[in-house]
Structure formats: structure tokens, C-alpha cells
């Protein structure tokens, strides 16, 4: 496939005039763009734009699988690979991403804040932000999008964590609890494009964005602060459908090469929970408030009976029986 190199602003004009994903490589790093506030009347409500954050060349083969899965989903209007590794040459990136089912944009730097920039290429109200090591299931993506459409002010996702106040140390900490959550991770998150504009352009979050830059972490926590501050509600966790959500980046994986499992934009090694707890405390300090709200349970795509009936000497859900 021949790849033509366009200046960035012409590149955007070409992309936005088309109705299907294409491959475009910017010949240079995009300059730090001015804040863009999208016109809500021009945004499609019936589909979403997928933004995949890429950094490691080791994950390019996996990115092909991820991009193809999203591109095949009828709920997806466009797939964008936001390449955040400035050391990758345009020639190398063009070669590695041949036949990729996505538009390729290069971020100005490796800053995690660019994951939430309201790029002009986004022409939908819903934006799906995801990592480059999570392969979606089509049924799960469709279900999550339908849940978002029923409550478009909330952040929707499959991976949840929580903040908590540790009485002993008198500090906020980052935890994973079984009965509640207040943070949806950017492994796969669906949210309204308005929050991208608020995260990136609102001056009240400028110092918090600086903390994200400094720690190379916690952009997802800050976005949950932004959403919760706007609606005074917690996020929504949904149950995976079909084959589930394959997470190659989870350290508990067996049989996944280190080059795929342990590379990426954010720093995950070492005292991961401690560092993210520090982010929560610093965000609380600079913003002067704790807007995070708890949610309980998750939404499932099955309202079958919960009662148990005896069949063949075994107890099974009553709606699994075949009555004549």
C-alpha cells in the first residue's frame, strides 16, 4: 500500500471528509494544538469514535487485531490510533502500520494527557478510550455502548477501581474493592466528548494535568474526577458479554511475552497502588475537593430468573428448564 504524507491540518481535512477509516501518517509531531470545543449539533449520537493509545512497537501486531475488531463493529464510526512515542520515525511507523484498520495520528509527546484531547477528527458524541493491549468482544462493546446511550453523562467501562480514606494514615488511598467502585480505567472507557474538552481545556484542571505529566500516570483517575465533578454521580461498570475482554497487559497472564505484557504509556511497575494513591491525594489537594462518588454493582445484559429449581437431581436456574 502506498502511503502519502500530508501536512497535519490538511490531513485532518482529508480524514473528516471520508466515512471510513484510512491510514495516514503525519510526517512530524503534531504541534501542541489549541483547545477545541466541539459543536454538539454536528456530532453523531448513534455511533462512537475509538481512540487507541499506542506507544510500543512490540504491540503493533496486537494493534492490528484490536483495530480490526473495533472497525468491524457497527457501533463504531471511526478508529484512531494515537501514536504517543515521539522516538518512532515516520518511516518505521508507516511500515509497521500498513493495512491497519485505523487512522494514525501522532501526538506532540508521550504525555498521557493527550489520551483525552478533543481531536477535531472526532465526529461522535461518544468516545471510547482504550489501551493497546485489550482486545474487545463485539457483544461486550455493543452492550456497553447501549448502556452509555441510556445514560450519556456517565463514564462506562469494564475495569473498575476505587478510592478510599485510610483512617490509620489519615490519607486517601487507591484500592480495589468487591462491593463498590468510583474509578473506571482507560483499559476500556466510554464517555461523552464534552468531558474531553473539559479535561484538556478547563483551567481548573491545569495543575492536575501537570501532576499527570510529572508522574506519567493517573490520567484515568483525573478523568473520573472530571466526570464526577460534573454530574455528582459515580461511574457505571458493565458485565462483559460473549467471549469477554482479553487483557494482554495484565501481569497475571501466562504465555504472553514480556514485550507485549509490560510495555506501554503509563508506569505500572513498582509500587503501583501507592503511586496512584499519591495521585488521588494530590488531585484532592490542588482541586480542593473530593468529587469521586461510589457506585455499587454492575449492569448485566441478562434478566433471567434468579430462583433455583430441581431438574435431574440437580438445582439449576428455573429459566434453564424446558417446560412442556
From TrEMBL:
Similarity-based family: Belongs to the glycosyltransferase 64 family.
Organism: Buddleja alternifolia
UniProt key word Transmembrane helix: yes
Molecular function GO labels: glycosyltransferase activity
Coiled coil regions, renumbered to chain: none
Domain Glycosyl transferase span(s) in chain numbering: 49-301
Domain of life: Eukaryota
Pfam families: Glyco_transf_64
Xref: PANTHER family: GLYCOSYLTRANSFERASE FAMILY PROTEIN 64 C3
Taxonomic path: Eukaryota, Viridiplantae, Streptophyta, Embryophyta, Tracheophyta
Any one annotated GO CC term: membrane
The protein's name: Glycosyl transferase 64 domain-containing protein
Transmembrane segments: 6-25
Alphabetical keyword list: Disulfide bond, Membrane, Transferase, Transmembrane, Transmembrane helix
Amino acid at each position: 500500500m502506498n502511503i502519502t504524507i500530508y501536512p497535519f491540518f490538511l490531513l485532518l481535512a482529508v480524514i473528516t471528509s471520508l466515512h471510513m477509516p484510512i491510514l495516514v501518517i503525519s510526517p512530524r509531531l503534531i504541534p501542541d494544538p489549541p483547545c477545541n470545543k466541539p459543536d454538539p449539533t454536528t456530532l453523531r449520537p448513534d455511533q462512537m469514535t475509538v481512540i487507541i493509545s499506542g506507544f510500543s512497537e512490540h504491540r503493533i501486531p496486537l494493534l492490528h487485531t484490536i483495530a480490526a475488531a473495533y472497525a468491524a463493529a457497527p457501533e463504531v464510526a471511526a478508529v484512531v490510533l494515537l501514536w504517543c512515542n515521539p522516538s518512532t520515525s515516520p518511516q518505521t511507523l508507516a511500515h509497521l502500520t500498513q493495512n491497519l484498520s485505523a487512522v494514525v495520528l501522532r501526538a506532540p509527546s508521550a504525555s498521557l494527557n493527550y489520551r483525552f484531547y478533543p481531536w477535531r477528527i472526532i465526529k461522535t458524541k461518544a468516545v471510547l478510550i482504550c489501551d493497546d493491549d485489550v482486545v474487545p468482544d463485539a457483544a461486550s462493546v455493543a452492550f456497553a455502548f447501549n448502556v452509555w446511550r441510556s445514560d450519556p453523562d456517565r463514564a462506562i467501562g469494564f475495569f473498575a477501581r476505587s478510592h478510599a480514606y485510610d483512617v490509620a494514615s489519615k490519607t486517601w488511598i487507591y484500592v480495589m474493592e468487591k462491593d463498590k467502585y468510583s474509578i473506571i480505567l482507560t483499559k476500556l472507557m466510554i464517555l461523552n466528548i464534552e468531558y474531553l474538552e473539559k479535561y484538556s481545556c478547563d483551567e481548573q484542571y491545569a495543575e492536575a494535568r501537570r501532576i499527570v505529566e510529572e508522574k506519567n500516570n493517573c490520567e484515568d483517575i483525573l478523568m473520573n474526577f472530571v466526570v464526577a465533578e460534573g454530574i455528582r454521580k459515580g461511574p457505571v461498570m458493565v458485565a462483559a458479554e460473549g467471549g469477554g475482554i482479553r487483557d494482554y497487559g495484565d501481569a497475571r497472564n501466562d504465555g504472553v511475552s514480556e514485550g507485549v505484557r509490560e510495555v506501554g504509556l503509563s508506569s505500572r511497575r513498582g509500587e503501583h497502588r501507592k503511586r496512584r494513591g499519591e495521585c488521588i491525594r494530590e488531585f484532592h489537594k490542588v482541586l480542593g475537593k473530593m468529587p469521586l462518588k461510589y457506585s455499587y454493582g454492575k449492569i448485566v445484559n441478562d434478566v433471567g430468573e434468579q430462583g433455583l429449581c430441581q431438574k435431574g437431581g440437580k438445582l439449576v436456574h428455573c429459566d434453564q428448564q424446558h417446560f412442556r
